[in-house]
Design a protein that fits this description.
Length: 282
């Protein structure tokens, strides 16, 4: 598996498996076991996905060695703050049945993220987390966190896909040593992504599928991708993206699809901030 080197020298697989919206415990456990068998080593979960226990069961049941895995989970908004974060981290680790985590992310840029960051710095220094980072941080929030703390975020997991390509943000993060990780690389199928004419024409040209062209285009930009599928055949399809190269002119063609806006919502919309504060999950 191709990896990227994070700003603290940790190697992170460039392709992983996301488990958002696989809330059924049996289905999630089976999906993660399938993903391991297909070859995935990076698993991306979150306390808000309510499936850390299922992921933990799959980790335990799998034949893959722990040191070959790269496990990410995320801290939810209600758990921010120094003490809360220490508690939430222990809870996540217990559910995942792990004694260390590879990557811990602040899920959203809201509430007491400073207190959380200091707790995460402590856990990182103790060796309980290999790398710490954030998610959904706009560039101003990212830099603000970075310049007023000791340890810079290693990763920012943000929405990136063909309709929201974010070249400026990815470049800015690169300059500042923060690895970009794309959530919803298929935009969850919105805007008829899987039937898109331009991507379909490239898929025919390279004799690959739309999904493979999308993932490959992100990987060629050195962005970590974490596609989700509950179907093993698609997991294998999404994993098979290292035997072709999209030309520079075709990468330029893909830029024509960019709508330069979220396909979901803006983290800067005050009504979204308010809505998320009520989104409590245990
Ligand atoms: P996604 O990966 O963009 O899309 C998943 C959808 O695509 C599912 O409906 C899946 O259906 C379908 N699909 C997958 N592979 C396919 C293929 N080869 N051909 C056709 N359809 C295919 O969406 P996502 O799950 O939201 O994002 C991926 C991961 O990013 C999540 O699982 C999560 O780990 C992370 N994430 C993070 C945040 C955040 O705030 N940090 C937000 C969203 C997501 P089937 O399952 O039926 O195959």
């Amino acid at each position: 598996m191709k990896t990227v080197k994070l700003n603290n020298d940790v190697d992170m697989p460039i392709l992983g498996f996301g488990v958002y919206q696989i809330e059924d415990q049996t289905e999630c456990e089976r999906a993660v076991l399938d993903a391991f068998e297909v070859g995935y080593r990076l698993i991306d979960t979150a306390s808000a996905y309510r499936n850390e226990t299922a992921v933990g069961n799959a980790i335990k049941a799998s034949n893959v060695k722990r040191e070959e895995m790269f496990i990410t989970t995320k801290l939810w908004i209600k758990d921010t703050g120094y003490e809360n974060t220490l508690r939430a981290f222990d809870k996540s680790l217990e559910k995942l049945q792990l004694d260390y985590l590879d990557l811990y992310l602040i899920h959203q840029p809201f509430n007491d993220v400073y207190g959380s960051w200091r707790a995460m710095e402590k856990l990182y220094k103790e060796g309980r987390i290999k790398a710490i980072g954030v998610s959904n941080f706009q560039m101003d929030r990212l830099i603000d966190l970075m310049v007023y703390n000791e340890i810079p975020p290693a990763v920012n997991q943000i929405e990136i896909h063909p309709f929201h390509q974010r070249f400026d943000d990815v470049d800015y993060m690169k300059v500042n040593g923060v690895q970009a990780e794309a959530w919803a690389p298929f935009a969850e199928g919105k805007n008829n992504l899987f039937e898109n004419d331009i991507i379909s024409s490239l898929a025919s040209k390279y004799q690959k599928t739309v999904a493979q062209v999308v993932l490959r285009s992100l990987i060629q930009r050195e962005i970590v991708v974490i596609p989700k599928s509950s179907k093993r055949v698609r997991m294998a399809e999404n994993f098979d993206v290292f035997d072709f190269e999209i030309s520079e002119s075709d990468m330029d063609l893909l830029k024509e699809i960019d709508k330069k806006e979220s396909s979901f919502f803006s983290h800067r919309d005050p009504e979204i901030v308010k809505w998320m504060s009520g989104f409590v999950r245990d």
